[in-house]
Amino acid sequence: MKTKRLPKCIKARAKTGGFTDVLKVRSRCSRTYYVKAVIDRHADSKCQKLRPGYVWTLKWSYPGNINHVKRCR
Questions:
Q1: What are the structural domains, with CATH classification, of the chain?
Q2: What is the pTM of this model?
């Protein structure tokens, strides 16, 4: 999975391969950022506010596949 224009203090990890896939994005930044997930063959996520120390979890079903996570706003 790719990340686009994300600072190094934001880490994204996806668990894929089952009927339901899960993405977790963790912020270890000192300021707030906005991110979204781009998913192939499925609707992209809305822009999500990531405060310092926050973990955002997104789930989607087959046949969607995570393409990348990027900054938004």
A1: 2-71 (2.60.40)
A2: 0.89
